[in-house]
Amino acid sequence: MSKKRRQILRMRDLRVSFKTANGIVQAVRGVDLDVFRGETVAIVGESGSGKSVTVKQVMGIRAHNEVVDSGTAEFTYTDDSGAERTVDLMALSDKEMVALKGDHIAMVFQDPLTSLDPTMTIERQLAEGIVHHTGLRGDALHRRCVELLDLVGITDVEARLASYPHQLSGGMRQRVVIAIALSCDPDLLICDEPTTALDVTIQARILELILELQRKLDIAVIFITHNLGVVAKVADYVNVMYAGKLVEAGTTADVFFDPRHPYTWGLLSSMPSVSARREERLFTIKGNPPNLLNEVVGDAFAPRNPYALDIDFVKEPPRFKISEHHWAATWLLDPRAPKVEMPPQLAERIAQMRDEGSVA
Ligand SMILES: Nc1ncnc2c1ncn2[C@@H]1O[C@H](COP(=O)(O)OP(=O)(O)OP(=O)(O)O)[C@@H](O)[C@H]1O
C-alpha cells in the first residue's frame, strides 16, 4: 500500500449501556475502531455482541433507554468550502448530527423492505434523498435517479423507477436501498448485515456490488455481520466482537490465516467452507454469551473456551500485539502462558482456504 491512508473515523473507548426493568445491560464495553478512506472494516460477532449498538453511535441513533457512558468518535470529512474538518460525533447536538449524516454518512440495514416505503415508487423515494441533499429538480433530478440505479447495477432503469418496492426482487430492493444511501454522496457507508435476508447467490452479488462501489467511489465502509465467511472477500480489516468488546483485530489475512483468540478459532471453525460438501458437519461454539446484565469478570469468553486458563476467570486479558496491525486480547498470548496451538482441524481448514484463495 503505497498511498497514504487517510483516517475517516477514530472511535475510542466507547461504552454504552441500557437501562432495563431488570437492571443495566452493559452492551458495549470499551470499543476502539479505526476506519480509513477507501477501505472496508468488518465487525464480526454473534448476535447480541454489540455490533449494531456500536455503529449506530456513528449515526446518532439511540434508544430512549440507552446511555453513552464514555467514548469519542472523531470523524474527518471535507466540508462545503473544501476544508478538512474533524468532529467528535459523540459530542454533536441532534441537529448537527442530522446535517452531518445527511451529507457524509449513510447506512444500509438488513431488511430492505423495512427501509423502503411500500406506498411510494422507487423514483419518489430516491428523489426525496437527492432533493434534500442537492436541491436538484425536474430533468436533472430524473437524470440523477437514473444514474444512481445504473451505479448499483440495475437495468431497465425507467421501468424500475416507476415500480413499487413489492414489484422488485429482494436483491433488487437491496440495490435500491444502496442507491438511496449513495444519493448523498457519503464518505462513510455503514452496512448492517446487508445480505442476511437474501439468498446465497444474491448475497454474493450484493457483496461484489458493495466492494465495487467502495473502490469506485473511494468511500469507507463499515460492514457488520455475524458471518465471518461473508467478510473474507470484502473486508480489508476485521474486528472480532464478543460480549460488547473487541477480542481480536487485524487485516483480513491476519484474522483468517493467523487467528489467535479462541473465540476467533470458534468462529472460523463454524464457518461453512467454500467447497462445502453436503455431509460436512459444522462445528458450533458450545454455550451462550454471558448475560450483560451481570458484571463480566475476566475474559467474557472463558466459560465457553476449552483453552481457558485459570486467570481468564479472574482477570480481563489486555491486548497483546502480534504485529503492527494485529492484536488479540487473550491470556494465551502472555509469555508466561502454556503453549497452546489452534485445533488441528482449523489449521487444516486455514491451509485449505489459502489454497482456494477464498480470502481477499
Ligand atoms: N433498547 C435496548 N434495551 C435493552 N437492551 C438492548 C437494547 N438495544 C440493544 N440491547 C442489547 O444490547 C446488546 C447488543 O445488541 P446489538 O443489537 O448491538 O447486537 P448485535 O451484535 O448487533 O446483534 P445482531 O447481530 O442480532 O443485530 C444485546 O444484548 C441487546 O439485547
UniProtKB/TrEMBL annotation:
Entry keyword set: ATP-binding, Cell membrane, Membrane, Nucleotide-binding, Transport
Q: Name one Pfam family in it.
A: ABC_tran
On the tree of life, the source organism's domain of life is Bacteria
Places the protein is found: Cell membrane
The membrane-topology field of this record reads: Peripheral membrane protein
CC per GO annotation? plasma membrane
Give the InterPro entries listed for this entry: AAA+_ATPase, ABC_Ni/Peptide_Import, ABC_transporter-like_ATP-bd, ABC_transporter-like_CS, Oligopep_ABC_C, P-loop_NTPase
Tell me the ranges covered by the ABC transporter domain, including all copies: 9-268
Ranges annotated as spanning the membrane? none
* Gene Ontology terms for molecular function: ATP binding; ATP hydrolysis activity
GO BP terms: namely: peptide transport
Q: What is its main location?
A: membrane
> Which family does the similarity line name?
Belongs to the ABC transporter superfamily.
Q: Which PANTHER family match?
A: DIPEPTIDE TRANSPORT ATP-BINDING PROTEIN DPPD (PTHR43297:SF2), OLIGOPEPTIDE TRANSPORT ATP-BINDING PROTEIN APPD (PTHR43297)
The protein in question is named: ABC transporter ATP-binding protein
